[in-house]
């Protein structure tokens, strides 16, 4: 006789899990907010020298991580999550599981800091790196070397051109090759896209950005589909190379994740309003935003990004480099600053940051759209363009 599960509670929605931090409370005091544990080392019992708890030293783990890691793993649908001192630290811990001679495929249009590190590190480590353009998946199929390619690194939408990759189709290409598929989900967030459900093996976040959302924490995270040998080697790298996050930063990160859904939804609604307003504007040559029907990746984004298209976009300003910098300089509501994903709106002239080697057009302004009134943001850009 089959078990009657009619009385079992329905699974909680991701936004509920995030808001309640997966029901992590302070068991000692009953506090509704998970506790912050700043200790670096932990007591052992006198009688048998066994640990009182599960942690011995905070370079390996800290109890404050548990609520944030459990919550992120649940949001991404992963088997486990791990926090790191930065997004680059998270990516490096995974890449350093590879051996000299292994082959990596990564897209050329991606976060420039990681791309630059990959180019430098692979040369030093004896890894073979292919940077590809991913307007379609033909270049990915051509670049894969079955048995030799060990890691494929993708980012969708890609920063700062906001190209959209069909992750499910990419996973179908990568899996037969035996390579690991890692996806940078920083800008889409699990609110909009869940790469593991589309076939990815690992998801990376610069948790500094949307997961934290308040521009006051530098952090990174990885989420894995499986607790396999690669995952264990990644955790080993986190510990032995010291890429661990501080407990206070982990506590702040969890605080930010509890409002992730409402922040991402508001930022996405604002970004769509801005994109629609400036699409076809006489002083804007192009609006790069997947939510616009004219965007080359719109149909993929509509299928892959559930509930919106995110808060990131770029404007290509008529008049080139000088005009773009002039517009950024005249903004009053948008703050001129690097980074993204906070509650405040930011504007950045990317070419000035990345330099000539970055390949970013000189007329491009990257916007991280926040949660302010959309009308104020539109008015600010209008007066800056005037």
Briefly note the CATH topology name of the largest domain: Aspartate Aminotransferase, domain 2
Top-tier CATH class of the largest domain = Alpha Beta
- How many domains? The number is 2
Mean pLDDT: 93
What is the H level of CATH, i.e. the homologous superfamily of the largest domain?
Type I PLP-dependent aspartate aminotransferase-like (Major domain)
Q: What percent of residues adopt helix (DSSP H or I)?
A: 25-40%
* Continuous helix count: 14
Beta-strand content: 15-25%
Largest sheet: number of strands, sense, barrel closure: 7 strands, mixed
Regions with pLDDT < 50 over 5+ consecutive residues? none
Shape: globular
Number of strands: 12
Helices and strands, in order, run as: HHEHEHEHEHEHEEHHHEHEHEEHEH
Kindly report how far apart the N and C termini lie.
73 Å
The neighbouring-strand order within the major sheet is 1-7-6-5-4-2-3
CATH architecture of the largest domain: 3-Layer(aba) Sandwich
Roughly how many Å is the radius of gyration? 22 Å
